[in-house]
Design a protein that fits this description.
Structural class: alpha/beta
Largest sheet: 8 strands, mixed
Strand content: 15-25%
Number of strands: 8
Helix content: 25-40%
Radius of gyration: 16 Å
Strand order of the largest sheet: 1-2-4-3-5-6-7-8
Amino acid sequence: MAAMEDVMTLSGDGIFSAYVSRPEGVPKAAIIVIQEIFGVNTGIRQKCDNWAGKGYLAVAPDLFWRLEPGISLDPDVPAEFEQALEWMGKFNQDQGIRDIEATIKYARGQVGGGKVGCVGYCLGGRLAFMTAARTDINASVGYYGVGIDGLLGEKHAIAHPLMLHIPTEDGFVDAATQKAMHDGLDDHPKVTLHDYEGLDHGFATEFGKRRDETAARLADSRTEAFFERELG
């Protein structure tokens, strides 16, 4: 069962929407699905539904709501891809983390104070790293996060497990950035990095031209095992 539901901001002076997919029976934990620059689109909603099918409460907050509620774009349509880049340029990431923190609070309440994890893609991969460093999330996963090398100064604050999926031919994350991520994080006791040789950005999207079926299945199986271990 899935529906758009309201989430209260941390300050209590605003409400934003989240796509919430509920499993049959009592959820074993909650997973927050953090959007790409394309908003809570069909692919993000499908990821929520997939997690619900595995027994989790899945929540995808509309993080662009302060710019325009309900943004849902198709990365395979050039004009919509350009729109997404414009929205990303206007998005306040620090405020976005506070809205993710509000979503964590909401999700914990929905699972009786149980564990909450997050998984993010592209912009959401970057936000997953920031969430791991700035909140009390129980476990985090980032797919092809952008600009994480510039966040390494926060790595000391990562107290709970974090997994990052890194395609080696990511058009938005060059080799030097990938090296900086490995140099900065390989010895971190809470962080695991997986490389995907020859793969590009967006390889684990649910729909569209960017998806690589074999690599997506491998990465998703690692993520699933990670959450089973950390949220179980």
